[in-house]
Amino acid sequence: MTRSPSSPSGEALTREVFTHELSSWLRFDPLAREGRDPEGVHQLRVAARRLRAEMGVLTQTISQKPAAHTSRELRWIGGVLGRQRDLDVLYELLCHVEHEDVPFDASVLALLRRQRERERRHVSEALSSRRYQDLVTTLAAWAVAPPLRRRAHKSASSILRPGVLGGLGELFDTVDSLGPNPTDEDLHRVRIAIKHNRYRCEVATPALGAGADAVAKDLAKAQGVLGDLHDRVVARDFLTRWRASRWPLDEDESRREPVAIALSELSDEMAQLRRRWRAHVAHARRRSTALYLDDDGPAALSDETSDE
After folding, report:
1. Residues 140 and 243 in one domain
2. pLDDT for 93-141, tens place per residue?
């Protein structure tokens, strides 16, 4: 998105965010309900996560109590969708790494198919629930008239810049503290932090301009690399547990070969991905310097500590 000649107000940007996300939500809701295309569940989950992150960016424009409730509901539905999405990703990944000449024991993928079907039923129940309908009704209402705070009339740049810069500063400090050999758990936490900061920059782009957009694109690349790494960590752990529980120590070694091959391939891919993500974060850090150029002057919000 290109920057407008002057920063929009916090109110205008808030309405734009909810209108855009509602449009995405209504587009993918039917696909998620049908359950035939995994992309429907994936995109609806993304919409829930994005909106939660964006509401965090817009905390200075949205009334706190209704925002807190809606954020909890978005987290709930995101969790329901996430359980199915994680199994979809795991299934597709294991199908990809399955060796053509030495296929998996059929029970590996059969187990995942049963688990996926169970989660599809849970998703269907959730999307048919009154709780979910109330959430969608709230989002539709907020696209027209979000619950605004008094300070929402201020320029969006003055409202958003401190939070965007603060979040990026914390992210870069966290990356610096990792050291050369971060654990899988460390990288999982960094991936989540990168994702949240990416969403912050994307929602702030109409107010902060091309600098925020450039940082968001670099963070999206880093998120993608770490996301691929996380998927392979989950697949490795699943196969390791399955192998340990499936076969006793005196089992015929030839039956272990397919899983051993898959684990080796996953390990090689993980090593490559661990080497790639830092360069994208480094690019984002360099480009973030443009965001310190405050066209509107320092944001003065301390005189409005409560306007609920």
Report:
1. no
2. 888 775 555 566 677 888 889 999 999 999 999 999 999 999 999 999 9
Q: What is the per-residue burial (b if ≥16 Cβ within 10 Å, else e) of 195-222?
A: bbbbbbbbbbbbbbbebbbbbbbbbbbb
In contact, 219 and 197? CB cutoff 8 Å: yes
- Give the model confidence (pLDDT) of 173-213 as tens digits: 999 999 889 999 999 999 999 999 999 899 889 889 899 99
Cβ density class 72-109: b for 16+ within 10 Å, e for less: ebbeebbebbbbbbbbbbbbebbeebbeeeeebbeebe
Rounded to whole angstroms, what are the CA distances from 110 to 113, 213, 280? 5, 43, 38
Q: Measuring CA to CA, how many Å separate 23 from each of 17, 131, 140?
A: 10, 20, 9
The more confident residue out of 65 and 96 is: 65
The boundaries of the domain holding residue 52 are 7-146
Structure-block tokens of residue 212: 């925020």
Say if CB 59 and CB 10 are below 8 A apart: no
Torsional class of 179: left (φ above 0), alpha (ψ -120 to 50), beta (otherwise) = left
Q: Is residue 299 part of a domain?
A: no
